[in-house]
Amino acid sequence: MELSYYPGCTIKTRARNFEDSAMAVLHELGVNMVELPRWNCCGTVYSLADDDLVHHIASVRNLMHVRKQGHEKVVTLCAFCYNTLHRANDIMRDNAEKRFAINSFMDEEAAYEGQVSVSHLLQVLRDDIGLEKISAKVQKPLDGLKIASYYGCTLLRPKSAAIDNPENPTILQSLVKALGGTPIEFPFATECCGSFQVVDNRDFVNERAYEIINSAVKNGAEAIIVSCPLCEFNLRQAQVKLKQKYTDFKGLPILYFTQIMALSFGLDIKINDFELNSTETQEWLKKEKLVV
Amino acid sequence: MARVELSSKKLHSEFIKKVAEISGQNIYQCYQCGKCSAGCPMCFAMDVLPNQIIRLAQLGLEDEIASSKTIWLCASCLTCDARCPKGVDLSRIMEAMRLLTLRINKNHIEPSKMSTETLAELPAIALVSSFRKLTS
Amino acid sequence: MYKLMQNIETAHAQKALVIGGGIAGIQAALDIADAGYQVVLVERTPSIGGHMIQYAEVFPTLDCPQCIMTPKMVEVSQHPNIKLLTYAEVKNVSGKAGHFKIEILQKSRRVDHTKCTGCGACWQKCPGKADSEYNAGVSERTAIYIPFPQAVPAKPVIDTKHCRYIHYQIFMANKTEGKKPPECRICEKICPVNAIDWEQQDTIVTEEVGAIVVATGFDLMPLNQIPGYGIDPDIINGIQFERLLSPGGPTAGVVKRLSDGKIPREVVFISCCGSRDPEHGVAYCSRVCCMYLAKQAMLYKNAVPDGQAYVFYIDTRTTGKGYEEFLQRGIEEGTLYLRGKVSRVYRDRDKLKVIGVDTLSSRKVEISCDMVVLAMAILPSNGNGKLFSLLGIETDIDGFVTESHHKFHPMETAVDGIFVAGVAQGPKDIPDSVAQGSGAAGKVLALFSRARLKPQEPVKV
Predict the structure, then answer these.
(1) What is the CATH number of the domain that holds A169?
(2) What's the pLDDT at B7?
(3) Domain stop point among A122, A145, A168
């Protein structure tokens, strides 16, 4: 299987651990991810203003290039990129007036009408590859490890972009089960981590992280998996401060879902780039004998 | 708490008209049930509840909106949109209100004043999204 | 536009059909029968009584509905002018006002009601189990059953889906794989009058009637339709809570959590779940929930004196006689009213966390409670659509029967001779349902009485 792959900025820098583990896992599963040539930043956030077209251009340009690449579907790892590209794509497909304006502005490219579909890797794993195939590749089952799946916002809202039931998503839990882990249900799985507010209001984001991580701990989780580099950053960086502020706060290791896939597939530990996860996470991995 | 004077002129001011235009929402569709506020993850830090922001708009009280912390604390998580029984996209209304300040070239955060440590620590996704949302 | 009757022949059927055995249908049937005309009352469940008979106490008088309804129900069963067909459904309708030909499917009960004395020996011994419809799933009933002690008729039916002997028969007939179900037949063995009749078939009863009253009532919106409120044994709807409050109910009036049987000390009631919610539910207001939540909070406080009730509301709609006073009494007696909606309810070990808001005090509120009661929207009765198209009557976009004029003809439909009463026309409380039942009966009687006069000249409108 060959898929067009859109990485996005953070995947190539701070979240290299997400990409490297994902690529290794997909290689195991027989999927060839072809990186979109000359991709540009998707813009991170989708503009919510009706009269704003200029902020969709970056996303649309990428989608045009996917077509040029000869593909009908593009896959992302970053949940934020997924959301932004998907919704920009919907505009090009559904809104004739805006489509015309954007195509006219980017007249050096072929007119684009939303012919490409935007998918997140989790959809590919669930719908195109199938959990059975993933289970079959497990060499070192996760031994009942209690893992809480944190979805955040961008995979589930708005409804038009949701990859699963927005109130009760199960896709990550099914994945955990397929890898031999124990999925932990907890009520903050779909609650926002605070997103970009971490730049100017870090303390408030830390409070959000406190609630989310506490809830997972209360429900018995030993680790949290995420699919968004911003969620990963927010939940990871909060923990040092939270341990200082709240004496009873027990942090949790934060991992990308592709990293636990790579671990359970028995792949070379180095491809996970665990040095980009927190030191506590690395210590925990050693303690659990997940890394030697 | 001072008395507010309501008038047709204030209710239909340029600010209010622009909020409706940029957001594409009918602010009068909101019947103030408060479900948005109930579900808002950033509500704990806000001075005015999200549903009250719409109420201020319904009453034409644009100065109180512009001076609130609330619209700048919104994380655009879309939980309010998903839960609203009347189908009001509050996140779009928040964005419109922010833009009415940002578009007159008033940044809410100043990238130029951020320390090199902060800029180095934050991942691209955080920086770019905050610049998009909170600067002109 | 309402059309005047044209040339009704004098020899029309002096009989009315009432579809639905809830309070509106019962009232209509009694009024028509008392006026001297024949009535066929068709009810699809095993007993008449509808939803009203499920409630613990009715607002604002706090009468016991079983006590006030049973005389009416008995009157229906014994009235010389009323033919009561329970466990039956209207299958076909043809003809027009004055001469409707009706085919009614009398479902097989597999119990011969001419022999059965209602002694109860069979349902006391039956091993088959199913969710009790009368108790809204809070408890179970047997496969051979009467739905509740005051059922009319007080003679059982066999629910073939849950009867072990029926399963055995199907297994033997189809030579299915797997374990053979037991050849139970305990009811047959224990019945002192040989009333069990396994060979009893569905039959078709035909009637010719001059007028029809549709009184098919309502069902509640399913609990899981509104996002944010999880599925949980302690998140229940209003009818389930009524059964818990009811002294004759499955817990003998002791309010217990369905999860662990403990008495809840803090109960949250949430208004407008599905109502006034065009995005996820229906746009209209269900009209009775503000009052029944107020009532349930008061009855709860009565049952659990040191308990605390909270009601999340957007408005309080208390327009009937004595209603506003009733609500204020509840508030003054200590029910805490919070103006705002609830975003989420989720389980936190043995508690339920309610995340809501009080817009009056501008506070986001969180309550760790023991039980949550959701006021789910009132919807037209399940499966009505087919019946309504058979009758040729119009419904609105919400599925309620459309009146031929909103103000002046609220009980008449687009079809001459077919009338509507009760919640089938739109959400309403019991007094209004009874009033409409009588009103529809009045319309039927007017139709019948006109037919005794000379044929009228056709009148164009």
Answers:
(1) 3.40.50.11810
(2) 87
(3) A122
Nearest residue of chain A to residue C231 (CA atoms): A168
Question: Would you identify the CATH topology of the domain C221-378?
Answer: FAD/NAD(P)-binding domain (3.50.50)
Q: Residues B40-57: what's their mean pLDDT?
A: 96
Distance from CA of A35 to the nearest CA of B (A): 19
Q: Say what the pTM is.
A: 0.91
Total of domains in chain A: 2
The tally of CA atoms less than 13 A away on the side-chain side of residue C61 is 7
Give the mean pLDDT of A150-176.
96
Question: Of the CATH numbers 3.40.640.10, 3.40.50.410, 3.50.50.60, 3.40.50.360, which one belongs to the domain with range C15-107+203-217+381-451?
Answer: 3.50.50.60
> Nearest CA of chain B to the CA of C283: how many Å?
9
Closest alpha carbon to A86 in A99, A103, A73, A98: A73
In a domain, A271, yes or no: yes
Please tell me if residue C351 touches chain A, with a CB cutoff of 8 Å.
no
Q: What is the CATH number of the domain that holds A110?
A: 1.20.1050.140
Are C279 and B85 in contact by the 8 Å Cβ rule? The answer is yes
Which candidate from B99, B125, B134 shows the least CB-CB separation from A44?
B125
What are the pLDDT digits (tens) for C258-295?
A: 999 999 999 999 999 999 999 999 999 999 999 999 99
| Chain B: residue whose CA lies nearest to A55 | B132
> Hey, where are the domains in chain C?
15-107+203-217+381-451, 121-190, 221-378
Q: Which of A89, A122, A155 is the last residue of a domain?
A: A122
CA distance C414 to C9: 21
Q: Is the pLDDT of residue C198 over 60?
A: yes
CA distance C345 to chain A (A): 9
Residue C451 to residue B47: CA distance in whole angstroms: 71
Amino acid at B133: K
For the sheet with C266-273, list strands across it: C235-237, C371-376, C266-273, C308-313, C336-339
Task: Give the C-side interface with B, CB within 8 Å.
Answer: 227-228, 272, 276-281, 314, 339-344, 355-359, 362, 364
Quick check: B89 contacting C, CB < 8 Å? no
At CB < 8 A and 24+ separation, what contacts does C315-319 make? C315/C290, C316/C290, C317/C285, C317/C287, C317/C290, C317/C291, C318/C290, C318/C291, C318/C294
**Confidence tier at C53 by pLDDT (50, 70, 90):** very high
What residue in A sits closest to C228 (Cα-Cα)? Answer: A167
Test C314 with B52 for CB contact under 8 angstroms: no
pLDDT band at C1 (very low <50, low <70, confident <90, very high): very low
Residues A217 and A187 occupy one common structural domain: yes
Are residues A220 and A140 part of one domain?
yes
Domain boundaries, chain B: 8-39+46-104, 109-136
Distance CA B52, CA B83 (A): 16
Burial category of B115 from C-beta neighbours within 10 Å (exposed 0-12, middle 13-18, buried 19 and up): exposed
A292: in domain: no
pLDDT at C9: 54
Q: Which domain holds residue A222?
A: 131-287
In this predicted structure, which of A144-148, A257-261, B99-103, C4-8 has the lowest mean pLDDT?
A: C4-8
Residue B1 touches chain C, beta carbons under 8 Å = no
